[in-house]
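Each letter names a residue; the fold follows as tokens. Both lines appear below:
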Amino acid sequence: MWALRLLLTTRNEAKCKQAKQDVEQCSVTNNIEAWSLELGSFDSVRKFADRIQSEGFPINAFIANASIATFTYVKMQDGWETMLQVNYLSTALLSILMLPHLIKSMMASDTARLVIVTSDAHFRANKLKGVANWPSILRKLNDDEYCTASDALYTQGCDVHSPCLATTCQVLQVMFVREPASWLPNPTPVSTTSINPGFCHSHLTRSIESNLVMKLMVHVGKALLARTTEMGSRALVHPAVEPSERDRHGRYVSCVEVAKESDYALSEEGKEISRHLWPGQVVIINVILRIVRRICLPPSDYQQKLCVSRTKLSTKDTSVVDCGTRCVCQYAK
């Protein structure tokens, strides 16, 4: 099985050209396109989605694979921490914007496919302490004081920024896929899956390899344990072509097999975070693109329950977008 039409994305035109050439050399089809897409910019995400719309590009399967790892806390131009924006928020925004196209391309005999690439490193993610008192989970994770505090996102013995927020983002990715499965119609028009391709050779570690010690550790680790890039790609593509993917809707898949999520993700605390994550991110994404709320909000009774649980939050100004889940209901009116 192969794609009749394949669209690749990279960060700039030069990389687009190279990626297209690389794939064409080993592909059975020449119907390949490459468009630039920078997940570090919400504007780039919007423009990409607009181009999909204007050109009528059919999307039967969408695989979100972009990710970054860094040692330092740096905010992007949009005001969000680098990993939080690239690995989670922009991925969520782009996935949501692709949903109408995926639904449109659904066939009577099969679902469209949305695949979010995560990692088994989400098993090492820290618990988010005090989350019940946070007006916004994502904005709290974006706070520089919280993000770099020794008792916040840091695992024991972890004295750098990267591993902690990176694994937190991976838990959020799993939750992003899992939560809609609980309230989307069944059978679903779009099967969503979070997948772990395993430890593979890639450029993901390029930022942390600026540290000589880390570079040596990464190179040794890859030499001994890493799969080839091509082997890892099989795990990425598998959910897009698996005939029974509808049966795995909302599940975490590791090495092409349905697997159990981390104990934290499956705990009552993790499920509560998952329930609050979607409305909270809709509020944020709604600022980026107002129309998003029309295609990604949970059912109205679900929103009302969230608002009741947050009675301490109040605002008379419905234009306020940073007051927690209460705003979701106000915008939905």
Summary: The chain is about 45% helix and 10% strand. The first helix runs from residue 13 to 25. The CA atoms of residues 199 and 225 lie 7 Å apart.
